[in-house]
Amino acid sequence: MYPDPRVIHSPAAAREARLHGFRLISYDRPGFGGSTPMPDRVIADCCADVEAILGGLGISRIAVRGFSGGGPYALASAALLPDAVAAVCLLAPLGPYGAAGLDFLNGMADSYREEVHIFFNDRAAAREKFRSEAAEMFGRLSTPGVG
User: Fold this and answer.
1) With the C-alpha atoms ordered 50, 51, 52, 56, is the resulting torsion angle positive or negative?
2) Contact by Cβ (8 Å): 2, 22
3) C-alpha to C-alpha distances, 99 to 70, 88, 103, 105, nearest whole angstrom
């Protein structure tokens, strides 16, 4: 079970897993991919999704992996579904922003530090920055020969 679908959409990873008797299963959290956003959800709410997937597939035990922002979801699944989750693996997980004693931005480039500062302190500017960058990227990606 992988709370971050970007990590496992690899045919090579799926083949390798099958060779060792594993299945890779992923889902889009609300608001990601083609899923419907669900405002006011908290990370722990993912456990109902995980339970529904397990029930639908007839699976009783899993290992979960979370990459980056998927890390907290993997941890929530492990903590709240101990009978179902046998193991958890985190790859470059995010820590809780603002937690005492945690430098959330340790090792990050100055440009990323500025983005995080804008995100948490000026949401309107963050939205405009995202829209502008998304429009620029769409223009590049949708124009043949430009990249």
Assistant:
1) positive
2) no
3) 18, 22, 8, 12
Q: Exposure of 105 by Cβ count < 10 A (0-12 exposed, 13-18 middle, 19+ buried)?
A: middle
Cβ burial of 50 (10 Å; 0-12, 13-18, 19+) is: buried
Q: Which runs of consecutive H residues, i.e. helices, occur in the chain?
A: 11-19, 46-57, 71-80, 110-121, 123-141
Q: How does pLDDT run along the chain (147 residues), one tens digit per residue?
A: 444 444 445 788 888 889 999 888 888 888 877 788 888 999 999 999 999 999 999 999 999 999 888 889 999 999 999 999 999 999 888 777 788 888 888 888 888 888 888 988 998 998 898 888 888 887 877 777 655
Dihedral sign, CA of 131, 133, 33, 146?
positive
